[in-house]
Amino acid sequence: AIHLKRFGNEVAFVSQIADDAFGKEIFEFAKKENIEKGISFDKNHPTGFVSVEFVGNEPHYTIELEKSWQYIDYVSLDSSIDVCVFGSLALYFEKNQATFLQYKQENPTALFICDLNLRGNFYSEKLISLCLSNAGILKVNDDEWEYLKNIYKQATNQNLLDYLKENFKLTQIIRTQGEKGAIVYWNGNIVQEETTLVPQELFKDAIGAGDGFLACFLNTYFKENDVQKALKNALSFAAKICQNSGAIPVEKNIY
């Protein structure tokens, strides 16, 4: 949300926090970035947090439960939605599914973009089908792509592409491939780009690289309607995120 806002788009971030120390910090940060209009406050659960442990350079996450983000309320926004980016992790919880479907129902012309997040035990075939059924664009990584091939019993990439098109009308898919780069399946065409390698001495961490990638891809694609350029820009931007500690750069000159 912050990346898209810093790229010059109108953005509202829909989530839920509590009136506690973490919540106040998040809300002040969101206000500073002008994305706070979709945030609601939970009186019954504390603000969520995630513990991160690094194995090599890769972050591994422990998601703490019974937190406010599991119970996101519907918030009326100032204007209708053109694009909604949603993650499958939040939709694991029933309250969030109901809130999400309310936004979907009230914005019938909006493009809904699913970022698949297979974290811990917070996913199921039923949840994945819900997400894919409501997505116009799907973003996955290699592990998530292999998971889809497995649950839908599709032997090859082309088999899975055909299956997703036939069963979910999905013809626009972004697949990140770690150090190899990324591949995009777009209306029957295949577009690939190699990653921008970060020298070891400049690498800080990979937290938020996927979100940065997706934000930059969407920003370029919607403004220039050029998939190849969007993919190239997105990989370059993700590499810049890896040269910053954490997901949100303090310096804004990379935008």
Q: How do the helices and strands line up, and which of them pair or pack?
A:
Blueprint: H1 2-6, E1 15-18, H2 21-32, E2 39-42, E3 50-55, E4 58-63, E5 83-87, H3 94-106, E6 111-115, H4 125-133, E7 137-141, H5 142-151, H6 157-168, E8 172-176, E9 182-186, E10 189-193, H7 209-224, H8 227-241
Parallel strand pairs: 1-2, 5-6, 6-7, 7-8
Antiparallel strand pairs: 3-4, 8-9, 9-10
Keywords:
alpha/beta, two-stranded parallel ribbon, six-stranded mixed beta sheet, 8 helices, 10 strands
Silhouette: globular
Number of distinct beta strands: 10
Can you count the helices? 8
Helix and strand content put the structural class at alpha/beta
Give a quick account of the main beta sheet: strands, pairing sense, barrel closure: 6 strands, mixed
Terminus-to-terminus distance: 14 Å
**Proportion of strand residues:** 15-25%
If strands are numbered along the chain, what order do they take across the biggest sheet?
A: 5-6-7-8-9-10
- Average per-residue pLDDT, rounded, comes to 95
Portion of residues in helices?
25-40%
> Which consecutive residue ranges, at least 5 long each, have pLDDT under 50?
none
Structure notes:
The protein has 8 helices and 10 strands. With 255 residues, the chain is of the alpha/beta class. The strands form 3 sheets. It has a 6-stranded mixed sheet. A two-stranded parallel sheet has the order 1-2. Strands 3-4 form a two-stranded antiparallel ribbon.
